[in-house]
């Protein structure tokens, strides 16, 4: 078992590990229990009642967080000709075709998200082993493969403004960053609700029984806080309706 420092143990005393907190209480407690002297990332961890070995039970989608993530997102767009021009004018940090493919094959990965025009996927497909393991591969299911160049500005606006992708890991847990410790409690709560609502909408039809089993929130260095699942689900649905 990992050893924790004095500050972490002091923060842990503030959390009742046998209690599931209401969302508002949990967010407030997370902020109170965070102790690091930098602006920690706040993450949500949701254990799902899925069988991750079954392809038809994979949970993967996107959500636009109303208050963003607090992180500046560098977006690369695989495009050529007019689409490349539109991408750069719309705020892409990098745009191009063969030259970007070559750079990435050479080990360059100085971006946080990528988008590809559909006609570029033949070239981008060869980067799957590099980009896929880092969650950077353009994918139609996440809305990052675009057919019409006129749609690029909206896609870029969402990516830079707080759109995040979520998917379950091999153990059936979804891990998503929803903001920074410096965010207000209301902003973190709103982002939490947006994520949980999107996750419920992404429920695979083949899943039986309890879908969301546990929901925990934590800052980078702070202790985890368990949330009351039924209340959180109901609140998220209400906020999203």
Q: Could you explain how this protein is built, in words?
A:
The chain has 241 residues and is of the alpha/beta class. The chain contains 9 helices and 10 strands. α3 links the parallel β3 and β4. The radius of gyration is 19 Å and the shape is globular.
Topology:
Elements (H helix, E strand, L loop, with lengths): L5 H7 L10 H11 L7 E8 L11 E5 L10 E4 L3 H8 L4 E3 L1 H8 L7 E5 L3 H4 L3 H4 L13 E2 L5 H10 L1 E5 L5 E8 L4 H17 L10 E8 L5 E3 L1 H12 L1
Parallel strand pairs: 3-4, 3-5, 5-6
Antiparallel strand pairs: 1-8, 1-9, 2-7, 9-10
Helix pairs in contact: 2-8, 8-9
Short recap of the structure:
With 241 residues, the protein is an alpha/beta fold.
Task: Fill in the keyword field for this structure.
241 residues; alpha/beta; Ribulose 1,5 Bisphosphate Carboxylase/Oxygenase; Rossmann fold; 2 domains; four-stranded antiparallel sheet; four-stranded parallel sheet; 9 helices; 34% helix; globular
């Amino acid at each position: 078992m990992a050893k924790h420092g004095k500050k972490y143990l002091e923060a842990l005393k503030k959390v009742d590990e046998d209690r599931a907190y209401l969302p508002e209480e949990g967010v407030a407690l997370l902020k109170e229990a965070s102790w690091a002297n930098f602006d920690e990332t706040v993450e949500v961890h949701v254990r799902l009642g899925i069988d991750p070995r079954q392809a038809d039970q994979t949970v993967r989608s996107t959500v636009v967080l109303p208050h963003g993530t607090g992180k500046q997102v560098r977006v690369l767009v695989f495009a050529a000709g007019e689409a490349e021009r539109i991408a750069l004018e719309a705020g892409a940090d990098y745009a191009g075709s063969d030259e970007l493919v070559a750079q990435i094959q050479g080990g360059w990965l100085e971006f946080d998200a990528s988008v590809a025009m559909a006609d570029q996927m033949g070239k981008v497909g060869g980067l799957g082993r590099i980009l896929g393991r880092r969650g950077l591969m353009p994918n139609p299911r996440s809305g990052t493969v675009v057919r019409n160049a006129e749609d690029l500005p909206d896609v870029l606006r969402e990516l830079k403004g707080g759109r995040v992708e979520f998917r379950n890991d091999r153990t059936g847990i979804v891990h998503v960053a929803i903001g920074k410790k410096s965010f207000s409690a209301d902003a973190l709560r709103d982002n939490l609700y947006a994520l949980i609502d999107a996750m419920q909408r992404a429920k695979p039809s083949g899943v039986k029984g309890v879908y969301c089993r546990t929901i925990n929130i934590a800052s980078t260095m702070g202790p985890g806080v368990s949330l009351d699942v039924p209340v959180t689900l109901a609140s998220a649905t209400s906020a999203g309706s």
